[in-house]
Write a structure and sequence with these properties.
By secondary structure, the chain is of the alpha/beta class. Helix content is about 30%, strand content about 25%. The protein contains 13 helices and 21 strands. Strands 16-17-20-19-18-21 form a 6-stranded antiparallel β-sheet, sandwiched between helices. The protein is globular. The protein starts with about 25 loop residues before the first strand and ends in a 7-residue tail after the last strand. The relative contact order is 0.12. The N terminus is likely disordered.
């Protein structure tokens, strides 16, 4: 569908507005997760009258429950990171003995205590997000929102009462939901929602998947003492990441005692007296207390009434938007995971901020997806920014220079832990521009955030080399890798 644009290519925000129409709200948002709350606050700060609706709070989401704060705050990044912190202490306690700490042989772990602390924190954050909306003058409705027309939203409240509100603009920010594979016995498995709220700690766990969630929960449960089997279809976990770093993560997972099952899938789950019998497509049988399906997420768009209004969406249910986050219906917009662009919380925040700036700030602004840093909170974590080696070879015409450093962090030399940190820089040989950086090792996300600024600014390898390192630190390795590991010609598959 062709969209009318202003002469300079910016969107005409008056399209879809009825002449002289008096609306209940300038903006109504469906979904009060990270993106929705950010859009509401920023739009209100620009002077817009804003309403927002969200499902009632619960740690485990469904079509009828959710909560202000959304996936990241309630059942995603935040509670997961709390569990990662808890799991990291397991290895730290082991390492502490070689630093002179005399510990009893039996160190107990109280899963329920950590779980309560996690629950207390997400309850606190849920309250904070509500106050942020209230302080910004945003009207919050608790209930399920659906689009009734291009300028009307229907909210079904908890008691079943339906309310209708007109809005000049409607923003969809409903995020995504965890998916389950279609295999016999799939009802015996859980998703990441339930994994963050298990009443009993799983002493035996089988995880299906190889993305962020699978690798992170494998690290969490193993760090707390569980026997973990990680099952995935490819040769290495974390498809889409730099292949060399994927191999590093796989070695670290195995080094921490996680059982890897590459090129494997699950064919059936069977309930038994001893637990859940897990049968793989190779005929192997595993017994587990918990089976986690970490097999991806789907845009949360099924119940929004998109078909009736004519909003375009793809086969996966992702809402199709243009570069300003606008759908094919001029008054309806969408940000975050429901659009399936780059599904990261900070990206949803960026999209929401620029939406508000575009629609209510008078400054049409497009999200910039270049050089976005991100991390996998495995133990130890992996963090990357910019292009992987494979991406650089595919996208660069000339030669690509690869610089790597593999070393034992100082802490490990004393503790005796056999786990190396690996760092990598990908450089365009012709321009000397650093195209990408990655690190797997302690504090990788904290270090890469700073590296990301340099790459975003177009830093060259010479500028990295001229920067004085902080000593002693792992981070200084990024400015001391002066000898190239290999040179690869664009279009040639690297030989690792």
């Amino acid at each position: 569908m062709a969209r009318k644009m202003l002469n300079d290519g910016e969107p005409d925000l008056k399209i879809g507005e009825e002449e002289g129409k008096d609306y209940d709200f300038d903006l109504f948002i469906i979904g009060a997760g990270s993106g929705g709350v950010r859009a509401a606050r920023f739009s209100s700060n620009f002077g817009a009258k804003v309403g927002i609706c969200e499902l009632p709070f619960h740690p485990i989401s469904s079509e009828t429950i959710g909560g202000v704060g959304g996936t990241c705050v309630i059942r995603g990044c935040v509670p997961k990171k709390i569990l990662v912190y808890g799991a990291t202490y397991g290895g730290d306690l082991e390492d502490a003995r070689n630093f002179g700490w005399e510990l009893n042989e039996n160190v107990d772990f109280n899963w329920k205590k950590l779980l309560q602390k996690k629950t207390d924190e997400i309850n606190r954050l849920n309250g904070i997000y509500k106050r942020l909306l209230s302080n910004a003058g945003v009207k919050l409705f608790e209930g399920e929102g659906k689009i009734a027309s291009p300028n009307e939203v229907e909210v079904t409240q908890l008691d079943g009462t339906k309310l209708s509100y007109s809005a000049k603009h409607i923003l969809i920010a409903t995020g995504s939901r965890a998916q389950r594979p279609n295999i016999p016995g799939q009802e015996l498995g859980i998703t990441s929602d339930e994994a963050l709220s298990l009443e009993e700690f799983p002493k035996r766990a089988v995880i299906l998947g190889a993305g962020y969630i699978a690798v992170e929960f494998a690290s969490i449960w193993r760090g707390m003492g569980s026997n973990v089997n990680l099952v995935f279809r490819k040769e290495l976990p974390l498809r889409g990441f730099d292949d060399e770093m994927r191999a590093v993560v796989a070695r670290n997972l195995e080094g921490r005692g996680i059982n890897l099952h590459p090129r494997t899938n699950l064919s059936q789950l069977i309930k038994t007296e001893d637990g859940i019998k897990v049968i793989t497509d190779h005929g192997e049988e595993l017994i587990a207390d918990v089976v986690l399906f970490a097999t991806g997420r789907a845009p949360n768009s099924k119940r929004l009434n998109l078909e009736k209004v004519g909003v375009e969406f793809d086969k996966a249910g992702a809402i199709v938007v243009n570069e300003y986050s606008r759908t094919n219906i001029p008054s309806i917009w969408a940000v975050g995971d429901v659009t399936n662009r780059l599904n990261l919380t900070p990206v949803a925040l960026m999209e929401a901020s620029l939406f508000a700036k575009t629609v209510f700030g008078g400054q049409p602004s497009k999200p910039d997806y270049d050089a976005i840093p991100y991390a996998v909170f495995s133990i130890p974590p992996l963090s990357v920014v910019g292009l992987s080696e494979e991406q650089a070879i595919e996208q660069t015409n000339g030669d690509v220079l690869i610089f790597t450093s593999t070393f034992n962090p100082m802490k490990n030399t004393i503790s005796g832990r056999q786990e190396k940190t690996v760092m990598k820089l990908v450089v365009d040989a012709q321009t000397d521009k650093v195209l990408g950086a990655s690190m797997c090792g302690p504090d990788a996300p904290e270090i890469l955030q700073g590296i990301a600024i340099g790459i975003k600014c177009g830093a060259t390898k010479a500028q990295f080399d001229s920067t004085v390192g902080i000593h002693p630190s792992s981070a200084e390795e990024f400015v001391t890798m002066r000898t190239e590991t290999r040179r690869v010609t664009g279009g040639v598959k690297p030989n690792l």
